[in-house]
Amino acid sequence: MEYTQLGSSDLNVSRLCLGCMSFGQKEGEARAAWTLNEDDARAIIKQALEQGINFFDTAFAYGGGLSEQIVGRALRDFAPRDQVVVATKFLPRTDAELEQGVTGAQHVMHHVNKSLSDLGMDYIDLYICHMWDYRTPIEEILEGMGQAVKEGKVRSLGFSNCYAWQLCHVNHLAEQMGIPQIVALQGHYNLLFREEEREMVPYCKEANIALTPYSPLASGRLVKKPGEVTARMEHDNVLHAKYDRSAQQDAVIIARVAELAEKYGLTTTQVALGWLLQKVAAPVVGATKSKHLTEAVAAVEVQLSAEDCAYLEEPYVPHQLVGVMEFNQPGKQLDLHDKK
Known about the structure:
Elements: E1 3-5, E2 12-14, E3 17-19, H1 38-50, E4 55-57, H2 66-78, E5 85-90, H3 95-100, H4 104-119, E6 124-129, H5 138-150, E7 154-160, H6 164-177, E8 182-186, H7 200-207, E9 210-211, H8 231-235, H9 237-243, H10 247-264, H11 268-277, E10 284-286, H12 290-299, H13 306-313, H14 324-327
Parallel strand pairs: 3-4, 3-10, 4-5, 5-6, 6-7, 7-8, 8-9
Antiparallel strand pairs: 1-2
Helix pairs in contact: 1-2, 2-4, 4-5, 5-6, 10-11, 10-13, 11-12
């Protein structure tokens, strides 16, 4: 495993981050077909640690804290606290909080404390705003994030699912308010969706903000054979919303990934991740089987040539925004808070 400094922070992280969205089954939950129970999740976390991964990403939104609880229990059992880097995320204010007059700062601090309780930890290494809250002044959100750092509950700050101008605005305000800068950006970025390259990637490079993208394998689309179907493909409506509409044009890229994998004796996962690892600090990789993790770790050593990368990139055409960036807009605020 290779390691890197996370942006301008003092966090030293593995080149792969284990994404923990799939940890925690709930009875009757639509995602249950592709999520893991606690025993299976613990096995994946233990394997990740054994293979050198020290960076773990979860969120309050993942099962209403269930993922955080599983991750926290496993890490407390398997690793010293100072040898792992734990990231978690908070959502925008709810309708109820708006009606009750809960400020953005109060909202952030409530979620910090809730996540610390779920994780069973004294501090969070990287605390991430899960998406832009269009109904809350960003100054209030930053006030809460800064307070969490001041109280020693958070070491570094991150952002996810935003535009480059928003991230730039956040860091400008943070400087004015005496709050630590954002050190990591978790956006949607892979061979099938490269819109981040227009403005976000150049800005983050200039500002020394680490890129830790989610969906590095396009929720599995990049590495499956034509016609191959998984439980997630059958049950994950978010996956379909993100990738179905561009399936025909994306098929060319998927075929080239398979072609290079055969040419070099690699897996498609190694090719797709190998490409991304040449561009970002640490992709957030999900794993529901041991082999998923083994393949991902092997990708860290893959070195594609400039010609190989150009070959993979050449068929790409502009894509419209999808997922959170498509639906989380003024007037149609996403509500991903767990209501169970």
